[in-house]
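Researcher: Before we compare anything, I want clean individual predictions. No alignment, no superposition, just each chain on its own. First chain goes here; please echo the sequence and then give the structure tokens.
Model: Echoing the first chain and its structure:
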Amino acid sequence: MEKPKRILVSCGTAIATSTVVAKAIEEAMKARGINVTTRQCKASEVKSLAEGVDLIVTTTPVPQGLGVPVIQTLAFLTGIGKEAVINQIAEILQSKP
């Protein structure tokens, strides 16, 4: 089995919002045949947890220059542009070895 792609999902408190986003990403990637694991964190923890992840998806601003692609979006909460963000996530993950 292919090694899962690792996604760090952050929000302000790492409680409700990141849970909603992480589950939505997991379901969407599974439907596309992309094996992922997600880890939730507070936005303030992103810098210390970014090493070794393939992608960071966040609902709030995080530090730049982490060496990892970052998608900042509210699409999983509002539904607006959700499919476009899912496509963007899939493209980034599929481009990773």
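Researcher: Okay. Second chain, same rules.
Model: Second chain and its structure:
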Amino acid sequence: MSPPSLQHIPTVFKQAQAAQAKGELQAAEDIYQSILATKSDIPEVHFQLGQIALARSDLGQAANHLTAALILKPAEPVLWKAIIGPLRQLRDPVIARR
């Protein structure tokens, strides 16, 4: 998918959310990535990519996106709660070897 223009990001973001809600994770991820290609500092996009990574058990990618979201919006409690699990699991040597 080609990157959307700045004015189309809200509409495209809603399309990604709809795909994600239907379980179409690859389609949603592709759309979110296209948004980041236009504007990389949207914490909500990083949060959603983190959620998709968690659904795929990709803890490293989840931690990367959730950390990016936290850097962009550090006062958001949901982001702090979301990152705790992946960071704990990454520190667990048994889980980290998977």
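Researcher: What stands out in the second chain?
Model: Residues 70 and 80 are 7 Å apart (CA to CA). Additionally, The chain has a mean pLDDT of 90.
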